[in-house]
Amino acid sequence: MALQQQGLKAISFTAPQLNIRTQGAYNNAHIESVDNRKITQALDEGYVVIVAGFQGINETGCITTLGRGGSDTTAVALAAALNLEEVDIYTDVDGVYSGDPRIIPSAFKHRELSFELMLELARQGARVLHSRCVKMAQSHKVHIHLRSSFTRGEGTRIHDKHGNIPAGITGVTALNRVAKIVLSAERGALDQPLDQLNTCGVELELISRVADEGNLEKITAVAPQSQLPHMLKILERCAISPKQYQVETELAKLSLVGAALHTHPTAHKLYELLHQEQIPSLPLSSSELNVSCLISADKLTRAQQTLHQKLVESTVCAA
Q1: Which of 7, 29, 240, 280 has the fewest CB atoms within 10 Å, i.e. is most exposed?
Q2: What is the pLDDT of residues 121-138, one digit of tens each?
């Protein structure tokens, strides 16, 4: 209506009108397909097309919502359906930074990132784009230009070109308020509960799975603290008693993300710096793209600032 008041031809569509098909939970659905015929026809007729994001319809025709980042994911799905090379996503920040600028004032903006690095940043806690949005863009080779709604400057371009993206640490990220759960049961008895947790959308990250010389198996995992009540109900339905698990809350997952980290002594430096700051940590994972550990949530801000100053900023200055 605002565009029409300015003399422009504009038309709006909802998810059912465009047959944006989804499957999955009602508040965390996944886009499967988009029918582009109505959009293409409207564009050919000179209309500015407005599409309601964050929603779709399932196989029974009921409206579903996509969860966090759903509007960005819708934008990428539309771009893919229209065979576009790039999509501009406007948000309240002007790009992807090396850390959360609200916590790390010296954090700097990246001009470009690979899909792999942006996907890892999103998975490890960077909230500028949801991992599902980035994964869809990568699958359909739709480049993303993440930029500010309030300025006209360049943002961060996310693409599949690796030539200009250096190896090393890209940024410090964190997932605050996570819970650690340790499950103990007879060998094989935890398979069904793990399957049920996965089916019900619990974001469970396995740390270790070990069996002793007897018949006892122990699994250590991390999940968002907000999902803990849901997770415990599922375990109860699977006949796992409170005596078979231990839960520790008010934790945070701290990560360093970058390219070719296996060629850098990143993990050693991370734990050394945390030790110097007297911040106890539990190693979680280490790969080519990230090094992660578990720390107390009340130490998170100091840990992020320290790692950014000593590892990220020092690397940039040296370069």
Answers
A1: 7
A2: 999 999 899 899 999 999
Q: Which two tokens stand for residue 112?
A: 């470009």
Look up the CATH superfamily of 166-319: VC0802-like (3.30.2130.10)
CB 255 within 8 A of CB 289: no
Q: What angle do CA 310, 117, 150 make, to 5 degrees?
A: 85
166-319 and 89-165 share a CATH fold: no
- Per-domain boundaries in the chain: 1-67, 89-165, 166-319
In angstroms, rounded to a whole number, what is the distance separating the alpha carbons of residues 268 and 200?
Answer: 36
Structure-token match 């771009």, residue found? 79
Buried b (16+ CB within 10 A) or exposed e, 251-281: bbbbbbbbbebeebebbebbeebbeebebeb
Q: Closest by alpha carbon to 293, among 168, 207, 171? A: 207
Q: Does pTM surpass 0.85?
A: yes
DSSP classification of residue 200: T
Q: Is the pLDDT confidence value at 318 over 60?
A: no
Q: Are strands 245-259 and 168-186 parallel, antiparallel or unpaired?
A: antiparallel
CA distance 306 to 111: 24
Q: How far is CA 271 from the centre of its chain?
A: 24
Topology of the domain covering 89-165: Carbamate kinase (3.40.1160)
pLDDT above 80 for 315: no
Element of type H or E holding 88:
strand 86-91
162 — pLDDT class (breaks 50, 70, 90):
low
